Amino acid sequence: MQNMCVVKPGGLDNLRASETQSASPAAGEIQVRVHASSLNFHDYLVAVGMLPVDDGRIPMSDGAGEVTAVGEGVTEFSVGDRVMSCFFPNWEDGGATMDRLLGVPGDHVDGFASESVTMSSKTFTPMPRHMSFAEAATLPCAGLTAWRALVEEASLKSGEWVLVQGTGGVSIFALQIAKYLGCKVVATSSSEAKLEKLRAMGADEVINYKEQPEWGRVAAELTGGVSLVVEVGGPGTVTQSVRALRVGGVISMIGVLTGLAGDVPLAEFFQRNAVMSGITVGSRQHQANMTKAFEEWKLRPVLDRSFELIKLAEAFRYQESGQHFGKIGVDLS
User: Fold this and answer.
1) Where is the Enoyl reductase (ER) domain (predicted)?
2) Which of 34, 59, 187, 273 could staple 198 via S-S, CB 3.0–4.6 A?
3) From the candidate CATH numbers 3.40.309.10, 3.40.50.150, 3.90.1170.40, 3.40.50.720, the one assigned to the domain spanning 154-278
4) d(CA 187, CA 172)
5) What is the reported pTM?
6) How far apart are CA 331 and CA 68, in angstroms?
7) What is the pLDDT of residues 207-234, one digit of tens each?
């Protein structure tokens, strides 16, 4: 089977193709023919060496494919089942604990930049029946993160306002989910073309944050204050996110695209009686809940474009460019 691996010290020029033998599943494991993966910021950090991993690590946390063999004792899956991966295979249900956050594919263990994988059956759940492999492969990280922020952790009511930042995978999923929940959405971007696409997807208000650097105050004026901010920027955007909130509003801290540390306007934060919640993807039960809802809604992910596995470095360079709208896929079929 063909795969891509990260050669130390990392960097896109150190993503190398290799071939290995497919492993037969042991007890409790299944073998999956991987048809698709998708890029997340976490995968980029692994690829460029900012998240150190073992030499030769096969990257990519997300995967979707078909079960090709089943190990002893596995009753949940059969040969031919269409499955997708779990970002945290050890987090079955309940709250996050350190031991439940170990075992991330493509980081702690080999991931899905491989034509075939053999892993614990806990690493997978059934994929939505109406989706293609390429669509399902966008869900385990970005889709589930947005789902947990808006549904599992928040108590949003129809008509409330949600703010989403930019046009990456989590933000687009958050826009889609918010609209299915009956919420209103204000979206930000620096691209007028992307703002028009966001409007076409249902965004009720859009703000160009380059033209409006105080976009948080603008959002508050437009909406009366938002109930939830899906915060993907981190320290470079959190001040404006606080200013966008209504009293009692929530910031779901999901990403740190602008850095790892920064200032929060604490006086404005506590004056709003606000809450900030860290969101790191979700559990297998969250994923099952998401899958059921997406099947009922017939929700389809927004896939910008896909790259062949051998062109994984090119896919990450496209991600670096910021040109994408939605998810970037990897085609292994």
Assistant:
1) 10-330
2) 187
3) 3.40.50.720
4) 10
5) 0.95
6) 18
7) 999 999 999 999 999 999 999 999 998 7
